[in-house]
Every structure is written in C-alpha cells, then in structure tokens.
Amino acid sequence: MPVVPLKDQERIQPGVGRFNGAASADDFGAGAMRRGAAAIQGGLDTAMQTALKIDDTIAEADALEMDNELSRFVREQLYGGESAVVQNGYTNAQGRTALEQREAVEAAINQRRQDIEGRASGGRARQMFSRAAQSRVDDALGTIGRHYGNQAEVFRTSQTEARVTEAHNNAVSAFADPDLVQ
Known about the structure:
Blueprint: H1 30-79, H2 95-118, H3 123-173
Helix pairs in contact: 1-2, 1-3, 2-3
C-alpha cells in the first residue's frame, strides 16, 4: 500500500481518512530541486562571468593591436619611415617644407586612426582603442604644432637673411650707381 511521507515520519493510515501530521514541499523533494536549481544557476553565473572575462581579454588584445598599429604609423609620420607623408618624417622637415606639410601629416594621422577604429572587432575593443588613440593623436598633434611653430621662426629668419644677402648682392652689382642701391 502506498505511503505518503510526512514530517516527523507520521503516516496517513489507509482507510482512516484523517491526516494527523504536517507535510511540506521539502518532503516531496522541492528542497533538493531548489538546491539543484541554485547550483545550476551558480554554475551558469560562473560560466557567464568567465565568458565575459574572456571577451574583455580579447577586446583588450584587439585594442592593443590597433594601438600598436597607430603608434607605428604616427612614429613614421613624425620621424620617418616607409609610410611617411614627408620624406624623413615631419620633425625633420625644415622651414617652408614643414609649414606646407603640416596639414597633410595631421590629416594622414587622423585618417589612419579612423581607418583602424573602423576595423575594431566589437564595441568594447573600439571603446578601449578610442581612448588610447585619442591620447596618442593629441600627443602627436602637439609635437607637430611645436615643430610648426619653431619652423615658422626658422622660415622667417631664413627669409630675413635672404633679404640681407639680396640687398648685399644688389649693392655689389650696382656699385657704380648708388641710386640703384636703396
């Protein structure tokens, strides 16, 4: 005859019709099922956290790879290399050449940053790269700006010297006609 488990091992007697004990869901395995579900949930949480950590690691590696590429490009633009807009790099350009090439170098750096960022494997990698790239590009533009300012002065000085030389040459050429030399 079937026996229904009850708390404190009390039993319903067949045919008596009276229940003389208190049964709970745990008596029917609900506690075990709840503990099992909690264990499964804990395992799923751990698996999800592990997967997210792996995704972050991959995104960080992708961002670092993109930053390395941008770093190489910026270095070549500033100091020379195969992709440099200015032969031997912008910081080696002098006078008028530096003044004329500034915009081209800045545009090349900004364009390369956009191109690299567009190839990011996902939003998290793009976000990580964007922060690093902004700092790298700002630093490069600062270097370019300082060099531009210095070379503007170099250009002005060279033109002043050329003017003095030109006046001297004019004086030598017209030594017999003082009206030509002014």
